[in-house]
Amino acid sequence: MYSTPFILSFSLLLSLPILFFFLAPTFHPHPLPPISVPDELDDLRLFHRATTPSLSSSHLSSSSSPKIAFLFLTNSDLHFLPLWNRFFRTAKTSRYNIYVHADPTVNITRPTKSVFDDRFIPNAKRTFRASATLISATRRLLATAILDDPANAYFAVLSQYCIPLRSFNYIYRSLFTSKTFDLTSNSSDLTQYGVRVKYKSFIEIISKEPRLWKRYVARGRFVMMPEVPFEDFRVGSQFFVLTRKHALLVVKDRTLWRKFKLPCYRASECYPEEHYFPTLLSMQDPDAVTRYTLTRVNWTGTVAGHPYMYKPKEVSAKLIYELRKSNYSSSYLFARKFSPDCLKPLMGIADSVILRD
């Protein structure tokens, strides 16, 4: 009574709901698991200790030189460890500290006989890309560095794909004593010795971005309200250099964290680590931030939210000189993203180009 083509078409039509049921997770990925209660409580204990009055001073320690805390966030081996070892070789140990947050679920080689010995923090937790776990990991690094040394005055967040573009001494002078490094500063911000009266954090803060609204509603249209209205929502790089005052501000925060830790139902629009820090600092202390980062990233030809990754054949003195150029400061100080096999050519120009002032 019914033709074969009709039966086939009708069967296909009936099978569509079944196919959609099984393929729905592909079209709408399930959100990543929320941060567990034990992990949250463990962090809160750490943050509470880091913000006790005896350790919460935002001023530099008078007993020693101010230091830069280098905070490495990684879920793999530190690909450019030899380059960073050479970077720190000429630095005075009284001027820096190193801290590494390594995902404990990944088998990561712990370096020996290097400046990274015993620099892996013990309270590291699992991290996922494009999730609030990266915010938590960064806050753990900041809290650990605050507790560890009151002389830590600047906190530079880096990844295993980052490289230095300048020598340690250049970076130290730029942050602490240079009168001309920050092209956005007023002369009134400096003393006659060049030391800034009011240190600023170098963090990218962007208020106008094409996909900002979609990122804002990734957890739900009204979820961020009332604490974070859309007009206060910002985007920026997760790699930044914060003052001690702002590191403490981040570790103390509870209000915005309650919003940004919520899972997203639009995973493709959800990058909490790119929003939490610029939004928090823009809302809490907008006049004490530069609104630009010191880490150069190439967003040309991005794929799935990843920046461009440089390959070995592209590494050259010309590339390093180009990556240093900035419209906001005398120079970018760091750069990403480099593939691990770039180590050999980078080491080949380390002394003659990268670390040469």
Automatic annotation (TrEMBL):
It holds the Pfam family Branch. It is a single-pass type II membrane protein. Keywords: Glycoprotein, Glycosyltransferase, Membrane, Signal, Transferase. It comes from the Eukaryota. InterPro entries: BC10-like (IPR044174), Glyco_trans_14 (IPR003406). Its main location: membrane. It is found in: Membrane. Residues 1-29 form the signal peptide. This is Core-2/I-branching beta-1,6-N-acetylglucosaminyltransferase family protein. It comes from Gossypium arboreum.
